[in-house]
Amino acid sequence: MTHPTFTDLGGASVFITGGGSGIGAALTEGFLRQGAKVAFVGRTDASDFVTQMEADTGNRPLFIQCDITDIAALKAAIADSTKAHGPITVLVNNAANDQRHATLDVDEAFWDWSQSINLKAYFFACQAVIPGMKQAGGGAIINFTSISYMMGNTGYPAYTTANSGINGMTRSLAREFGPDEIRVNALAPGWVLTQKQLELWADPEALAAHLERQCLKKHLDPDDIVTPTLFLASDASRMITGQSLAVDGGVVVSG
């Protein structure tokens, strides 16, 4: 897929959580192709991916190995990115974990683990980049949520709780930091067929049932999420903040 060029993203300092696999890898490549200075974090080594991205785009990202549930390590990674690329002006909170679980099986440890990945890390990443965005005269934060909570899906209640919380956080931060020219939006993908989804949950019956719910009868892949994210990061959306954009082929509707 060819993505449009957003000229203001050239040279922008971008920080992506979970930027080495799945949707995050597509986002990293998308920003690199815009000429942005991209740093990303992930739990597993992404050295090969970094080398491949440099070969494919001519633009080498900065990879910092980090578990985002370790808030001190996440803040340190953001500081390292700032030192390398200047104040972060685009934050993409993408990393998440939608491990399936049943309500009656959830204990406190699992609940805390799920919220630490899917909500807590988002808040503290925002908190860490906002001073630099103020210094830079503004910025854009894109918080990835999901349509799962809008659909009322079962099978991962801790995850859908965090998804809904991301929208509340997004709206509050948009209101608080709008006077600083910091825009904060949420992006809610539908069922994007990453390699993980294909391996764990995308059996033919489930795929057919979900496609039936979509207005557009094509399954989403990670590349479908790139242009909407670039748009929300760029000046093309300069008067859009506090919103949640569903990119799902028309499963849910709002307004």
From TrEMBL:
Q: Which UniProt keywords apply?
A: Oxidoreductase
Entry superkingdom: Bacteria
Gene3D superfamilies assigned to the protein according to its UniProt record, in alphabetical order: NAD(P)-binding Rossmann-like Domain
Any one Pfam family here would be adh_short_C2
Matching SMART domains = PKS_KR (SM00822)
**SUPFAM superfamilies registered for this protein in UniProt:** NAD(P)-binding Rossmann-fold domains (SSF51735)
Any keyword rRNA-binding?
Answer: no
- GO molecular function terms listed in the Swiss-Prot or TrEMBL record: oxidoreductase activity
The Ketoreductase domain is annotated at 12-204
Q: Does the keyword Ligase apply?
A: no
| Family to which this protein belongs | Belongs to the short-chain dehydrogenases/reductases (SDR) family.
- Its protein name is NAD(P)-dependent dehydrogenase, short-chain alcohol dehydrogenase family
Task: Specify the species.
Answer: Aliiroseovarius sediminilitoris
